[in-house]
Automatic annotation (TrEMBL):
Belongs to the phosphofructokinase type A (PFKA) family. ATP-dependent PFK group I subfamily. Prokaryotic clade 'B1' sub-subfamily. ATP binds at G14, R75, C76, G105, D106, G107, S108. The gene is pfkA. Substrate binds at T129, I130, D131, R166, M173, G174, R175, E227, H255, I256, Q257, R258. Allosterically activated by ADP and other diphosphonucleosides, and allosterically inhibited by phosphoenolpyruvate. GO terms for molecular function: 6-phosphofructokinase activity; AMP binding; ATP binding; fructose-6-phosphate binding; identical protein binding; metal ion binding; monosaccharide binding. It comes from Nitrincola iocasae. The active site is at D131 (proton acceptor). GO terms for cellular component: 6-phosphofructokinase complex. HAMAP family: Phosphofructokinase_I_B1 (MF_00339). This is ATP-dependent 6-phosphofructokinase.
Amino acid sequence: MREITSVAVLTSGGDSPGMNAAIRGVVRTALSYGITVFGIHRGFTGLLQNDMELLSSASVSNIVQRGGTFLKSARCPEFHDPACRKQAAKILHTRNIEALLVIGGDGSLTGAHLLEEETGIPVIGLPGTIDNDIFGTEDTIGFDTAMNTALDAIDRIRDTADSHERHFLVEVMGRNSGFLATHVGIAAGAEMILVPEYSVNIAEIALQLATSRKAGTGSSGIIVVAEGNEPDLTSKIAHELQQHGLAPHISILGHIQRGGRPSGHDRVLASCLGAVAIEYLLAGYSDIMVGVSNGEVVDIPLDDLIRYRKGLDPELLKIALQLHK
Ligand code: F6P
């Protein structure tokens, strides 16, 4: 067992539902081993400002069901600078904090990796992002909730699309990845799913939709468009559809997908990863992310997140297409 008496935890980058449950998992597990826990406010930005509070078991009461992160989150471009990472390590040393737990997406976890590599501060990452685009883990904290939030919105859009015999282009988040869009599209029964991983032929799409409308097999429809596609793809498709006599509507779901009460799945995932992160730390691990593979908790070297990109399973898209033949 590694001897640790004090750790800090922060949430960084875009918030995701379940981050609170993850903090709670970290805090309560650490306290059970007699470890002091500091909660850093506003991610790496707060760390650089030495802005943190001592957390007790009561500090994390009544948060497991809340979206967002009570520690606040931020994007911190300064952390790209090695001098800032050195400064962060100095602040942690001054407070006798021996390890850092970082809950965030791949950018935040890359920052965490560089902090350990350059300064020797042990770090453990937890995958917190709605995008589910982190290499090495099949699930991330917040993905399930975001998918269900998007589905709730699309199911409602479907009702009005059907009633008015219209097509809707629904843009979902996911940064450069089509993972969220693919899952949302399959679960929503979307007529088309457009993701950045595969090139899109706008003319072909418009012709296909116009033809099935004429044939009476597609008077309305939902086209899920991942935000990471080429710039303005959604409006370009809308324009092309208009040329074919269709009057599509655009609905950009945006940040609604990041908020809301975490699903039961995300609460359990976040609680378990929070607890396991402390167990791994005590077992001597660091410079790793705790994630999920084949339903089991695994550790992934943070280095791998920089070297490899999570690919979209082509089988999933194939299934999505087959379901709409
Ligand atoms: O990474 C999470 C995410 O919500 C992405 O899906 C999206 O592209 C991005 O963050 C938006 O970031 P911001 O809230 O900083 O505009």
